[in-house]
Amino acid sequence: MDGHELVKQTLDQIPQANTNAKRIVGLVKESGRITGYQLSDNTVVEKQQAVNMAKQGQIAGVGIAHRGDTEYLKSIPDGSENNNLSNLPSTSPQN
Q: How many domains does the chain have?
């Protein structure tokens, strides 16, 4: 089993993305923690809203994982490092 398959096994769910699904292009962080995501249409959504959108196929390239009772998004391994969530630019929340 290669590394990509191993990472995929850590995901609870890999939703099928719709043809018009958005991509995550940036992370919104507060005190170093991800609180939301900037999408390819420049909208910013909160973390839980993004999880719900991904489950409905509205965000491409991500799977759902959990830590304790909290669900979160993880990149689906595709052999490219530059589209991994951890490699995306961060921004502060807009108030």
A: 1
| pLDDT tens readout for residues 48-59 | 999 999 999 999
Q: What is the mean pLDDT of residues 47-70?
A: 95
- How far is residue 15 from each of residues 6, 40, 58, 71, measured CA to CA in Å? 17, 18, 9, 14
**Would the pTM count as exceeding 0.70?**
yes
Backbone angles phi and psi of 11, in degrees to 5 = -90, 140
Helix (H) or strand (E) holding 39: strand 33-39
Task: Give the containing element (helix H, strand E) for 1.
Answer: none
Model pLDDT, residue 11: 85
Boundaries of domain holding 63: 3-91
CA-CA distances (angstroms) from residue 37 to 4, 20, 29, 45, 75?
Answer: 23, 18, 9, 6, 13
Cα separations (Å) of 89 from 11, 16, 60, 61? Answer: 23, 25, 18, 16
Is-contact 75 3, C-beta < 8 A? no
